[in-house]
What does this fold into?
Amino acid sequence: MEKKFVDYNGTTVIEGWPEKIEAAQEETTYIIDGTIYPRIAYGNEEEDWGANKGPCHDCAVIKGQLHVPGCDGERCPVCGGQAMCCDCEYEGDE
It folds into this structure.
């Protein structure tokens, strides 16, 4: 089966990915160790991931949007590490 691609946010992504980006915008917080924290939008990270130059290298969000959960560019709002693999206790982690 051939994969289909679409243009979204100025880049080419796999079909169905725009819906994942839009759903990620509805998840504005994480619960970590029982406390609610706002998620860090692309371009608001402490390090420069190139948000002024183009979409996120991993999940294709644009500056000001929230990363798709699991993106390797998303920073943890508590420790600043990669949200996908830091040691913080996110609610829902198994």
In short: Residues 1-94 form one domain. The mean pLDDT is 94.
